[in-house]
């Protein structure tokens, strides 16, 4: 018999009402089925495609392989939480639009969440490095050239903004 667990999730800066879930529920299923946030996609459900990528305490995770219980009390950021409260898109979201870095769009939320982490982790110094650190995110449409260009552009933009604020 499955054990129920009451969790408090902090998602995109907002505390959710307590969620009582089966202890085996993944973070992906908790997000998609128990909150109104459906941006993280269920692609392979085996941790191989990256469509479900979110950030937990600033680290990118595959939410299909992460139990919701592991995120209890953690700060979770989903694609819905990247834009500013006034609707201004994050630099990576803007770059994906500018570089047409998506086709069908299914993988885009996971790609963007990984790109934000890739840049924050300091792994956007070259196209080869971007490809390496984004390799866990698959694009079935093959928009990789545009994705790399978007990550490179966003990294330059974000690094320039960081130098201006110093």
Strand order of the largest sheet: 3-2-7-5-6
Question: What is the CATH homologous superfamily assignment of the largest domain?
Answer: Beta-grasp domain
Q: Any idea of the CATH class of the largest domain?
A: Alpha Beta
Approximately what portion of the residues adopt beta-strand conformation?
5-15%
Give an account of the 3D structure:
Keywords: 2Fe-2S, Iron, Iron-sulfur, Metal-binding, Oxidoreductase. Pfam families: Fer2 (PF00111), Fer2_2 (PF01799). The structure is a single chain. With 166 residues, this protein is of the alpha+beta class. The protein folds into 2 domains: 4-81, Roll (Ubiquitin-like (UB roll)); 91-164, DNA polymerase, domain 1 (Orthogonal Bundle). It has 5 helices and 7 strands, in the order ββββαβββαααα. It has helices at 27-34, 91-98, 108-120, 127-133, 144-164; strands at 4-7, 10-11, 14-15, 19-22, 53-56, 59-62, 75-77. A hairpin with a 2-residue loop joins strand 5 and strand 6. The longest helix has 21 residues, at 144-164. The radius of gyration is 16 Å and the shape is globular.
Which characteristics define this entry?
single chain, 166 residues, alpha+beta, Ubiquitin-like (UB roll), DNA polymerase, domain 1, five-stranded mixed beta sheet, two-stranded antiparallel sheet, 5 helices, globular
Summarize it:
This protein is of the alpha+beta class and about 170 residues long.
């Amino acid at each position: 018999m499955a054990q129920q667990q009451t969790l408090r999730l902090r998602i995109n800066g907002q505390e959710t009402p307590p969620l009582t879930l089966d202890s085996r529920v993944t973070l992906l299923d908790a997000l998609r089925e128990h909150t109104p946030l459906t941006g993280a996609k269920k692609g392979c459900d085996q941790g191989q495609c990256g469509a479900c990528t979110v950030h937990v305490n600033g680290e990118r995770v595959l939410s299909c392989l992460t139990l919701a219980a592991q995120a209890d009390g953690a700060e979770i950021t989903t694609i819905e939480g990247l834009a500013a409260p006034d609707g201004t898109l994050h630099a990576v979201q803007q770059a994906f639009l500018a570089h047409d870095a998506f086709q069908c769009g299914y993988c885009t939320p996971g790609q963007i969440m990984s790109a934000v982490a890739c840049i924050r982790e300091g792994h956007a110094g070259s196209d080869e490095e971007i490809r390496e650190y984004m390799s866990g995110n698959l694009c079935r449409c093959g928009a990789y050239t545009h994705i790399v260009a978007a990550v490179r552009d966003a990294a330059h933009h974000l690094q320039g903004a960081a130098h201006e604020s110093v």
